[in-house]
Request: fold
Amino acid sequence: MTATIPNLPSLYEPFSTEAKWQKFWEENQVYKADPNHGGEPYCVVIPPPNVTGSLHMGHAFESALIDVLVRYHRMRGRNTLWLPGTDHASIAVHTMLEKQLKKEGKTRYELGREQFLERAKQWKAESGGFIVNQLRRLGVSVDWTRERFTLDEGLSQAVIEAFTRLYAEGLIYRGEYLVNWCPATQSAVSDVEVENQEVNGNLWHFRYPLTDGSGYVEVATTRPETMLGDTGVAVNPSDERYKHLIGKTITLPIMQREIPIIGDEFVDPTFGTGCVKVTPAHDPNDFEMGKRHNLPFINILNKDGTLNANAGEFQGQDRFVARKNVVARLEADGFLVKVEDYKHTVPYSDRGKVPIEPLLSTQWFVKIRPLADQALEFLDQQNSPEFVPQRWTKVYRDWLVKLKDWCISRQLWWGHQIPAWYAVSETNGQIADNTPFVVAKSAEEAWEKAKSQFGENVQLKQDPDVLDTWFSSGLWPFSTLGWPQETQDLATYYPTTTLVTGFDIIFFWVARMTMMAGHFTGKMPFNDVYIHGLVLDEKGQKMSKTKGNGIDPLLLIDKYGTDALRYTLVKEVVGAGQDIRLEYDRKKDESPSVEASRNFANKLWNAARFVMMNLDGQTPNQLGQPIAAELSDRWILSRYHQVIKQTINYIDNYGLGEAAKGLYEFIWGDFCDWYIELVKSRLQQNADPASRRVAQQILAHILEGILKLLHPFMPHITEEIWQTLTQQPADSRQTLSLQPYPQPDSNLINPDIETEFELLIETIRTIRNLRAEADIKPGAKVTANLQSENARERQIINSGQVYIKDLAKVETLTINDKENKQAVVEKTPLKGLKTIGLIIVAIVFIRLAYSVGYAIDRVPLFGTFFEIVGFVYSTWFISRYLLVAEARQKFWEKFFPPATDNQHSPATELQPEASENAIAGVVGTVQVVIPLKGVVDIEVLRAKLEKSLNKVEAEAQSLRGRLSNAKFVDKAPKDVVQGARDALAEAEKQGEILRDRLRSLA
Reply:
């Protein structure tokens, strides 16, 4: 009875395959973590994407890197949890909803807070899972049963707990401070929500007259309207031009306010005029100077970006309108000196898309130094967390050192409402800066606290502001595991193992997590922080919405498949933390690099089909463990175990790109291109059964191992092939994801065999290249003469000549040294007689020597002397002539020179005479010569080469003409000129190659 042979379809179809396995993994909860499961815990929390977001290339890159690590460690037997979730993105959702209301002719105030939040929740229910579904398309191995949202009930309780604890400990306070203000959204924004843009602006120079009438000082500014809030002018105290003015005052134009001239080391004497205006309420640096010198803080802005009553005649004007009017007034009054064009950086609100304003505002703040100092202590004393690459440790440390108090309140409605209640009955029903308040975990608790302080008639209003999104995100590693409750998840999986994130949020997220975790749990939230780079566009530029140069990962997934995109993104990484450049043709929406990975998937698919068609319907388990029978078997097993060892080492040290490239080279090159080709003849039905069985065992064994090694990188195609290879039943819940990762067997690793086989591979490759150069027909057999002075090389080539003949289509193979001595000599009867004669002579010689030695030994003193001499000579003779194979061969040839008659087989024919047409190449120290006589038409080949040479020389001449033209070199774009130079160099190289080929035909 013939066994049923399982097989794969002729073409790999990624889209249905990927969807099938994504559904299988999720429905069977393959990645559901169990804290009671054995194994060392390995936990990663996903960097939560904004719930409003859509999948971009940064998400795809980061998720692919994390999934490689998680799948790998799961297969290594660790108790793995990858916890997913999303961030509520206060500003993003709030801005989106306000735009919708604006289209409807409404405002959020008309709608009211409760209805506004209901609308937000409805949007979240309908559209908020968009990015989550896109993440599913990446095949990420997360535990979807543990999916979290920063506004869900559990995380909201964690946020309230954290706020109330910090407030009780004196680490949260309410006060007036300078914040980033977005007039479009009318909210404070964090630094991470600010995008610096380079703009072409102006630098205005004004005269500020000294109050005593003795002259003036000149100041320059890019924001003239802020001069209405100036309360000082600053110079460097060591600046000889101005030090005599320190302590004097100037009269501020327009406002007619007398303000002092102060000395402050912050002022750079070499920048501008060396004299700067100080507006403490509207510039961060001026704010600090204002505090140092006790200057007044005058706010001239309303929250919508218009000027307030402190701006005098400009009250009610938009800030940019007021800018023009202030300049016009100063010019009319004779205070404008000059206006310069000035390119500078302006901070824009990422959500509001308008320039932000530093604004003095009453907000809630976290007293950051105690938290930052504790995180620094972990870093300096325990190197925790450990950054990969290590250079980011300094960046992280520098952030912690220079941190200032953190503004955590936002003037929004979507988010965690601040758990503070104001006794508005004490301030006429309104929340003012001086309204007393209580902080509590609930409205009921707040009422009890307020009643005891202000009496039964107290009226309370909860703070309308919400917390900065980064406050809840800072709790993410432990709040998602159940904190503040002592859950089993928290006990098992915390601290998490690895955080994978971008360098741009080391401070905004990483530092906040370490500070919060250090304070609330006494531990750092993760052991390692793997900082990855950016995915750059095809020109090597950072992708951004502003530039419009983003690349949609879903488009590439639809075209090439998820595995192809994932593998490309990981494989392109050269060194941990490095940026990668993604090849992309925008006109065709195609990526050559992702296409190459798709081709790699197809290569693996076709190799698997071939292997399965030659296993007689047996699985790897049924075939059993292989025992190498031939040189090629020992070589591929050595390479396989070497690659296992190499891959494990790379992944353990975050060399994910190097691991991916190593697997690519082994699978495509060693396994598919070489071993499969080498064993094809052994798989024939008429082949030796024992050899055929070993070939089947090795093919099945290594194919299954390859699927396991590659699974973390390309999970879908490897799962599909593995299910077929191992013949899993349709209702099976077995999955490759839970199979053990291969382990290297050091006993099977043989570097010497790998080195030897590499010589054979290069020899075959060289013969193939020479055949192509000479236009020898693919099916034609050739004669190849291999020459080497190295006896070891000749021995290696001789042992692998069957592979050379088979794969390079060589009919007659000659292996010689360069003195034309044959390295392969047949045994003859004459050689046997000579050997017997040599033995008889040696016996006679030994007997004679013994007699002479015995006689000498009897003479006093001579015996001992000759014993010493004999021992020394014997040692020298053995080491000189007997220890090394090549030395033994030369010693033998002194007595029996190699045969030079014609009694040898075709496989050992001598090289052709020098006059014979031939083509030659070199591999290592081996010269490869292929005679062309009788194989190709020499004259036709010569004519073809001459035609190609004429074409190349004409092209080179044309390029030289262009490059010798000064107008072309000076006026053409640099990339065009460089392209011409590169083309000329290539043409000259091709010309030299063609001339060499023609010379070989002479």
